Amino acid sequence: KYVSKNKIIAIAGITGGIGTTTIAMNTANMLAKKNHDKNVLFIDLSATKAISNLFLGQNPLPKKTIIDLVNSAEFDIEKNLKNGLVKIRENFYSINGIQKHIDSDFLEKDVFIEKLLSYISKASEEFNFIIIDTGEANATPLNTTVYDIVNELWVITEMSLPHISKLKTFFSLIKRAGLKDKVSFMVNRYDSANAISVSDVTSILNTTGDDYMIRIPNDYATLGHCWNYCELATDTHPNSPFIEKLEDILKNKNFFNEERRKARRSGEKKSSSLFSFFK
Fold it and tell me: HSE (CB half, 13 Å, CA atoms) of 218?
């Protein structure tokens, strides 16, 4: 079983349009910004037409995608830059996702999955953080393989009845696969008007307490603007509620160590110890 010495994180949305790609792209960008001595790779594995290239590569229709890159059957950054790998900054790279819906069938072929695993294995020797946007959370051969090899799986949901009901089904599959300990639930837009209560969520999921749910506030004022202009909030709105919460999440996971810019409560001590993500 493949195990990386560095950090590989898969981010999956319980449905489409729930903020998975936004969270994944900004997470990768923030990790690169906060860890200048670390290399970060963002991989777009969404089975729908990828839009991350508009935010990361600023290319509306890249000629090469992850399919071309994986089929090249080699890990060489300089050569890969001609086959779907994009250099964003000195320590930040991304891989273009598919651009045609017919390409989604190719993603599920055994030969592609095998080559992808080989590429990720080699990339993990070069990149300290690999963030994989898997699109919608499901049990396809591609996604289940990715969920198995990553260190962490972040499942993005909302606190509405349809989303939590689907989350219950997916979480049952994860538990049966023995991957429960990898999972973090991130409730995006938890304070939306249509959100159900925490007690309803715990009842549906048959859990106790809500400590396992990481809550991200509704910040449409920021993210709506960013989507209109294909901007990363981590670049243009560093003090927005969404980015402050994302930064807080990454700090709590010890992905970087930086003094908190704002104390969450009066008298809160600021951390000054040096953390390592190695375990």
Answer: 10
